[in-house]
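Let's practice the habit of predicting before peeking. Look at the sequence and jot down your guess about where helices and strands might fall. Then scroll down.
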Amino acid sequence: QVQLVESGGGLVQPGGSLRLSCAASGLTFSVYTMGWFRQAPGKERDFVAAIRWNGGSTYTADSVKGRFTISRDNAKNTVYLQMNSLKPEDTAVYYCAKHKYRYVSTSSRTGDYDYWGQGTQVTVSS
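Done guessing? Here is the structure:
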């Protein structure tokens, strides 16, 4: 049974930082590309960042480029999202997701991911 569990969300002031973690179990983590997505109230789920199965490449949405960094530790079965210079518009529930297929490159399409975590709330407000 694949499980993805996010943590690290919370309330932060504009300009602050948070580091999200996603712990994976029930799968061979090191062969799957992983992604982060977010969903604000009343909006669609949007791509944030993805990292190739071996960590060799990343892909980041333009809206967060230069502020957010995705990384992974295959020994710990964990993917991270470091978020700096946070803005109120970054407020959303953040989800990690596993790509459907092994050994593929990064993707921004939600339909390419088959397992999702329960999400962690990030609120950026003064």
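How did you do? The longest strand covers residues 92-102.
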